[in-house]
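Two proteins, back to back. First:
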Amino acid sequence: MRFRNPPRLRSTALAAVAAMAMTAWIPAAASASAASGTAAATAGALQDGAPGDVVSSAPSAFHPLPGQPTGTKAWKIHYRSTTADGAPNTVSGTVIVPQDGRTGPRPLITYAVGTVGMGDSCAPSNNIPHGTAMEANLIQQLTLRGWAVVVTDYEGLGTPGVHTYTVGPSAGHAVLDAARAAQRLPQAGLSATGPVAIMGYSQGGQASSWAAELQGSYAPELQVKGTATGGVPADLLKVADFNNGSYGSGLIFMAAAGQDAAFPELKLDSYLNPAGKVLVGAMKENCVAIDAIAGSFKRISDLTTRNPLAQPDWQARLNQSRLGRTAPAAPVYQYHALADELIPYAVGSRLRSEWCARGANVEFDTIWLGEHVSGVITQSPAVANWLADRFAGRPTRANC
C-alpha cells in the first residue's frame, strides 16, 4: 500500500522532527526500475568476490538542489557487503568526487544518512541526482573542501528485499564496504591507501558508530582517521520505550519492520493486529515524510495483540544492535543535543561512557540549544573542522 502524496514531496517540519533525514518522494516506477536493474548484479555478487568489491557502476550526478552545479562527478554503484549474520549481500550507493585538479591522495568520507524511509524510492542514490536528497546540502560542505564522499543506501534500500532499518551490524558493514568500493572504483581515482573518515547522524549515527566499532576487525586495511557521529540511537530498547506513544512512535514500527527483515524468525506479522499490519505494510513502501506522520502518537499496544519487544528473542536481536561493547580503533567525535526529543541524551551519554571505559579516544560535545534535527545542521561546521584536523594529523582533544 502506498500512501497518496504529490510527486517530490519535501519533508514537512513534523517529518524532519520525527526522523532527521529529510527526503523527497520519487514515483514508485523509479524504485521498481532500480530493483529490477539490480537483481542480476545481486546474484553475481553473491557468487564471487569480497566485501567492498564493485558489482556495477553507472554515471550519476550530485545536486544539492535541482540542477545546482557542484563541480563534481558522481557514480551510482552496487557493491558487495555483509548482512548482520555474516552472509554476503549487495548494497547500492553513490560515489562523489570533486573535479578540482587535486593531486595526491584525496580524503574520502564514507557518509551514513539519517532516516529516509523504507521504500526503495527513498534511497539516497535515487534522490542525489535530482537534487531532492536534503542531506546533500551537508554533503556539499564536504565536497567543497576537496573531499570525496561515498553515500551508502544501506541493505535493502534501493535493492531487492526490505530495508533492514536500525540493524546496526548490517549498517556498519555497508558503511565500511562503501569506502572500500569507492577506493576500488577506477573512475573515482581514489587511492586504496588514502585517508578515510566515517560520518553520520541519527540512523546514520548508529551506522557510523557501528562502522567505527567494526572497522578494526572487519576492515583493518582502511586508513580511518576518525569518526564523527551524532544523535546516536545506541540502545534501541531504550529509544523505543522513550518514543512509545509520542510523535516519534512511527520510528518504532519502522525499526520493528527492519529487524524483522533481517531476522524473519522474529515473525513480526504474528504480533500485529489488522491496523498494525496495514500500517507496517505501508511503511515498507513509503518515505519518512509519510511514515513518520502515519505512525505518530501511537502506542505499541494500539497496533499489536502482544508486545514483541517484551519477548526474549526480540530483546536478544535488538541488543545485538546495541553499541558500546567495542572501543573504536580510531578517534571519535560524538555529539548529542541535550534536548533531543527522539534519541534521549542519556543514551548518547552512556555510549560515550562505555567507549571511554574501554579506552577509546572520544571527544564528546553537548549541543546545549536545539533538538534532534537542528543538531546535525548547527554542528556540521564543527564536524567538518574536526575531520579536517584528523586528515591533517593534528592531535585530538579527548575529554573522557
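And the second protein:
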Amino acid sequence: MTADVVSNRVLNRTLLARQHLLERTTLTVPQLCDHLIGLQAQDVPPPFIGLWSRARDFVPDAVSAGLLDRSLVRITLMRGTIHLVTAADAVRIAPHIQPELEKAPFRKGFNYGAMVGLDPETVRRRGEQVLGDEPMSAADLRVRAAEVFPDRDPGAVVQTWLYQLPVLQTPPRGLWKNNSRPVWSRIQPWLGAELEPDYPLGELVFRYLRAFGPASTMDVQTWSRLLGIKEVVERLGERVRTYRDERGRTLYDVADAQLADPDLPAPVRFLGWYDNLYLSHQDRSRVVTDGAAPPLQRSATQVAPVLVDGYLAGIYKVFTDRERARLRIAPERAWTAAERGEVEAEGAALLDFLEPDRKPSVEILAPGANLKP
C-alpha cells in the first residue's frame, strides 16, 4: 500500500483513458457496456453518443440488436436513473440498488407523501399481480393503479411499482431513433433469469475503480448511492492501493492499474447529456474545472458537454428541421484557433453520425451564449 500524491491533471488523463475518451476502443458494445458498468440512458440519444465517442467504427444497430435479442437492457440502476447495461449486469447489480429504491416512495418527500400510510409489501404484491409476466405501458399501469388504489394518485402508485418490482424498459424505446414511450417489464420474465443477490458488492466497487478510479469512497457513493463503501473497499485488501489527491484526500485504485501520463493529448469529445463521466464523482474537478456539477436542468433540455483538452469547456445542442441539422456550441471559456478547429471537425463528424440525411452546420457561439437558435 502506498500513498503517492496524484495531480488533478493525472486524474483527468487517467479517467479519460479508462473511459476510452483519449483514444477510441475496438471493444464491442457489450464489452464497453460491461467495462463502463452501463451508460446513462434517461433519453434515447445519449448512450449512442457516448458509445460513438468511445468506440471505433461504432454502428447504432449494435445497440438496437442487443436490446432486441435481450443481451442489453435499459433499467433503473445507479442513482435511480436509467442505464443501458448488459443483461448480466441487470440481474447482478439490481439486487444492490433495489433496497434503496424501494424506500423512496414511502417517504414524505415522494410526491408530497402520496404513498405514506400504505403497507409497502401490500403495494408490492398488488404491483406484481398487475404487471405479471407481460410488458405493460405506463398508461395501462395507471389505469390499473386507479382500480387497485382508488384513493391514491395513480401516477404515484405506478412510480412506486416501478421502484419496487424491479423492472426494465422494453423495445421499441431505446432503439436507434426510437423515442416511443416506455413499456415496462419485470426483469425475470423478460430476461428469463433470476436476480443474483449473491453478486459481491466488492466486485462492483472494484469494477467502478477500474473504470473511474482512482477515487474516494465518497466518489463511489456518489456514483452508486450505496452506503458503507469504506468498509467494502477495506475488505478488498491488497486488490487495491491508495493515493492522495492534491487536497490530501485518500483515493483508492485497482492495484495493478496504471496512471496516465499527464502530458497525453486529449482530443475534443462530445458527450451525451447526463454522461457518467461527469456525474460519477463527488469531486468533479478532474473533468469540470470548478468542480461543480453541470446544471442538470440544462441536460433535461438535451444540452450536453464538450470536452476540450480533457475538461468540460463548452456545451452543445443539436437542432433539426426537415432539411437541416444545426450543431450550436457555446464555449465556457475562450478557445484558441486550434481548439476551435478541432471542435468544428469533431462536431461535423458528430452531425454526420446523428443526422446523415440532413444538411449540416456547426456554429460556435460566443462564450456563455444562449444555445437557442
